[in-house]
């Protein structure tokens, strides 16, 4: 598994209701451990943990799901455990479903966070999957989280709109995604007036099943290609919720404003992506990281041919004018 897939898996885990008995195994699965190995651990085979509620994977991690309010105490027990030392565990981790604490035993580096926030620290945990921690990911994991959410949206949209997966429409799909990324940046960097304007508009005015999301986005994109002085005579007339978006020069919103149809899940992925703080995200990473998610066969089937050269330099478009 690569970093984006791991982020996606642990983000899904953090959103699920906490199940103390299942957490260690679902956590290990998120880092690419085979079901056969997990089955043996579930059965008690190869699980040499000596801590209540503990699961120990040799040369990897000693995990314990514990009673509420005992996370710090349980982490100390894992650290002092003879089994931890004997199994040469690299990490220890304790959680009660409310908070989570972990430690890398070689360096002594630790994390402590609310349970729903632990995916924000996935870079710290990447060595569990045999991935040498990349400093850029560890220092700014939001780049990978954004890429993961964009990729989920991209694949879901291509599954729902197979015509957009064909080679002749690849440029249209990449152009659409570039427009989305601009909007995400714009609402977090004061290019758009109002906090979270784009994501909030989609959430408020689109149907939950995603049925009209493509129409709503198309109108927003159309508005950003019409100068304010010309909007009164624009035909068809702009909806009030689209009219509040600024005119953006540079050509990103010129031409065809067609948008692929959305499913309920595609709408959800779009909202999840929009809820990130895009001011902290580097736009240059998307092309290479999204391309790395799927293997060659999957990219060929889905028409995923992203590269850095396909992704516009968004800075030159970030110039709204009256």
How does this model look, in words?
The structure is a single chain. With 322 residues, this protein is α+β, with helices and mostly antiparallel strands. It folds into two domains: 3-139, no CATH class; 142-321, no CATH class. Helix content is 44%, strand content 9%. It is built from 15 helices and seven strands. The strands form two sheets. It has a five-stranded mixed beta sheet, with helices on both faces. A hairpin with a 3-residue loop joins β3 (91-95) and β4. Residues 289-320 have low confidence and may be disordered.
Keywords, please?
9% strand, 44% helix, elongated, two-stranded antiparallel ribbon, 322 residues, 15 helices, 2 domains, disordered C terminus, alpha+beta, 5-stranded mixed β-sheet
In short:
This protein is of the alpha+beta class. It contains 15 helices and seven strands.
Strand content: 5-15%
On the 0 to 100 scale, the average pLDDT is 84
Unreliable stretches covering 5 or more consecutive residues: 289-320
Number of helices, counting only DSSP H or I runs of 4 residues or more = 15
Main sheet overview:
5 strands, mixed
Instruction: Give the CA-CA distance, first to last residue.
Output: 47 Å
The overall number of domains is 2
How does the helix and strand content classify structurally?
alpha+beta
Q: Please identify the oligomeric state.
A: single chain
The main sheet orders its strands as 1-2-3-4-5
How many strands?
7
Topology:
Layout: H1 3-15, H2 23-30, H3 35-42, E1 54-57, E2 61-65, H4 71-80, H5 82-86, E3 91-95, E4 99-104, E5 110-114, H6 122-125, H7 135-139, H8 142-160, H9 170-188, H10 197-205, H11 213-223, H12 240-243, E6 247-248, H13 264-274, H14 286-293, H15 296-302, E7 320-321
């Amino acid at each position: 598994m690569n970093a984006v897939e791991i982020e996606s898996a642990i983000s899904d885990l953090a959103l699920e209701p906490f199940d103390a008995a299942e957490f260690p195994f679902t956590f290990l699965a998120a880092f690419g451990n085979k079901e056969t190995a997990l089955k043996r651990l579930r059965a008690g085979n190869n699980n040499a943990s000596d801590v209540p509620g503990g699961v120990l994977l040799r040369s990897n991690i000693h995990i314990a799901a514990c009673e509420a309010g005992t996370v710090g105490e349980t982490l100390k027990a894992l650290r002092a455990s003879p089994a931890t030392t004997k199994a040469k565990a690299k990490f220890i981790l304790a959680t009660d479903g409310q908070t989570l604490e972990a430690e890398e035993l070689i360096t002594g580096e630790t994390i402590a966070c609310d349970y729903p926030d632990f995916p924000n620290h996935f870079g710290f945990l990447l060595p569990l999957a045999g991935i040498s921690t990349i400093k850029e990911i560890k220092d700014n994991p939001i780049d990978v989280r954004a890429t993961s959410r964009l990729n989920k949206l991209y694949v879901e949209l291509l599954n729902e709109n197979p015509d957009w997966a064909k080679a002749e429409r690849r440029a249209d799909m990449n152009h659409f995604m570039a427009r989305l990324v601009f909007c995400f940046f714009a609402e977090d960097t004061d290019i758009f007036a109002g906090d979270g304007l784009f994501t909030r508009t989609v959430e408020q005015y689109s149907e939950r099943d995603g049925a009209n999301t493509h129409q709503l986005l198309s109108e927003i994109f159309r508005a950003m290609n019409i100068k304010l002085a010309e909007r009164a005579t624009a035909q068809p007339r702009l909806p009030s919720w689209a009219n509040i978006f600024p005119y953006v020069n540079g050509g990103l919103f010129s031409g065809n404003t067609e948008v692929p149809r959305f499913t309920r899940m595609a709408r959800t992925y779009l909202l999840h992506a929009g809820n990130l703080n895009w001011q902290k995200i580097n736009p240059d990473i998307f092309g290479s990281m999204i391309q790395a998610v799927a293997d060659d066969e999957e990219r060929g089937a889905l028409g995923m041919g992203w590269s850095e050269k396909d992704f516009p330099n968004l800075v030159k478009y970030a110039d709204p004018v009256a």
